[in-house]
């Protein structure tokens, strides 16, 4: 699936105009700009739209941006911890080396999204819909995917210890190169989940697992 994730359609960074954000209004549309080295705080707005925007070294704090729309957006070295992005629509967007600790993406829709080298402990993706999303080398301890639709999602070399996957169908979800000592899951959703032989001990007594051995690698 890795090769099927469409990247953000930002061809030339030099064509993006530098811009500073001080306040955000509901239904505001912001496009074709570079937002860097700035602090966005104490904002509350609905359905703000960002299109073809790069955020670099930006901290967003104490803010609720409900139903934010992100299309062709790149976040680099940003801190979005504890921000409320519930009901977000995220399309062709990349998060690189960002802090997403406790960030609320509940009920969000994710299409063609890459999240790489990020820290997302306690992040919430409850009731989200994932259609083409890759988490790579991320720390996602105690992150929450309760009853999310994990269609075409990939976790690669992530720490997902104590993540909540209850209510998620895990058939063909490959967790074999992720690290965890335990997960919060429902037995009936585990059938077809792909794990390593070493991880099988975490699910001792549970049935329906596909265990990947060294000969399968």
TrEMBL record:
Pfam families: Pentapeptide_4
InterPro entries (UniProt xref): 5peptide_repeat, PA_immunity-related
Top-rank taxon, per record: Bacteria
TM segment ranges: none
PANTHER family: ANTIBIOTIC RESISTANCE PROTEIN MCBG, PENTAPEPTIDE REPEAT-CONTAINING PROTEIN
Record protein name field: Pentapeptide repeat-containing protein
Naturally occurring in which organism (per UniProt): Paenibacillus sonchi
